[in-house]
Specification:
eight-stranded antiparallel beta sheet; alpha+beta; 22% helix
Length: 314
């Protein structure tokens, strides 16, 4: 999913990371234990964030409204997001409807987080990949920086949540975390990965039901320009506002045969948003209709169509 932000914001993010690259890095005692090609530097992070920002792929970061000794805390849309300074403790999403914790890949090898003026947290690493976390009012973005060919291709996000929750991979490449009743807790748009030249790298999600793995197929590409940026964006729908459509209504929307017809059927309810997100909404309506499901089109925190079952889907 492409998310735009102003070039000025992107420039500020990049400048902050470039500044941090002069301040942070392995001490001389640690550096002698690692060859340069084996770890991910803050300079690599600044490079991938600049490329991703120029491509319009970064969420606009927001400042944590609170800062404690343990975490940076952001609140919005009925959800509290806690990003710990120690990545091994996991990123927590807390709401009245649910709680879950997302553990970053290779978190045990990361150093204490550094926070930029824009609210982004980076976790310097002594391996060939590292993590950055961007809190937003509508979700959280977890950027993986792949510094070189020594980095792995699989990055697994372990999730601590209810035993009845499970991930599913959707036909459009996105992923959903749903509970036993079909309630969507978190939506993860289809993944992306780009190299330092802005060239797309093949990537996809896999799941065992309880964790989400992003596979970034960079090793077999001879022309790849490192470092690489890749991400999942986690969008929550606790306290979401929007419209529910039952099975009959969902089928009617799917039968319009095109995104344009879909928007016409909705009339002026969603205004300009339908023109921007019509393809995603129409695709989800078709999939829902084929699987005896319904759709819910949210307006807050993110204008996305969500397939659901259970209450309201009759």
């Amino acid at each position: 999913m492409k998310i735009t932000q102003s070039s000025s914001v992107g420039a500020l993010i990049v400048a902050s990371f470039l500044f941090l690259s002069f301040l942070v890095g392995p001490t001389s005692a640690n550096a002698q234990n690692f060859q340069p090609e084996e770890f991910s530097s803050t300079e690599d992070v600044s490079t991938v964030l600049e490329v991703a920002s120029n491509a319009g792929l970064l969420l606009p970061a927001v400042q944590g409204v609170e800062t404690s000794k343990e975490a940076s805390i952001t609140k919005g849309s009925g959800v509290t997001l806690e990003i710990p300074w120690n990545s091994g403790e996991g990123v927590e999403i807390l709401s009245e409807e649910f709680e879950l914790t997302i553990f970053l890949p290779n978190a045990n090898l990361a150093q204490r987080a550094l926070k930029t003026a824009q609210g982004t947290l980076i976790f310097p690493s002594t391996t060939a990949s590292s993590n950055s976390v961007i809190p937003s009012s509508s979700g959280v973005q977890m950027i993986t920086t792949i510094s070189n060919e020594f980095a792995p291709e699989r990055y697994t996000y372990e999730v601590e949540t209810s035993e009845t929750d499970s991930f599913q991979i959707n036909e459009d490449g996105s992923a959903s975390l749903i509970d036993s009743s079909g309630f969507l807790k978190v939506f993860v748009p289809a993944p992306w990965a780009i190299d330092a030249n802005g060239v797309s790298i093949p990537t996809h999600y896999e799941t065992d039901g309880k964790s989400l793995t992003q596979v970034i197929e960079h090793s077999s590409i001879e022309t790849v320009a490192y470092p690489i940026a890749a991400d999942p964006i986690w969008v929550w729908f606790a306290g979401a506002y929007g419209l529910k459509f039952n099975k009959s209504e969902t089928r009617n929307l799917a039968n319009y045969g095109s995104a344009a017809g879909f928007c016409g059927a909705l009339g002026r309810i969603y205004g300009i948003w339908c023109g921007v997100f019509a393809a995603q909404w129409f695709t989800q309506a078709v999939i829902a209709s084929q699987n005896n499901q319904c759709i819910f089109i949210a307006t807050i925190p993110a204008p996305l169509a969500i397939r659901y079952t259970g209450s309201g889907c009759y």
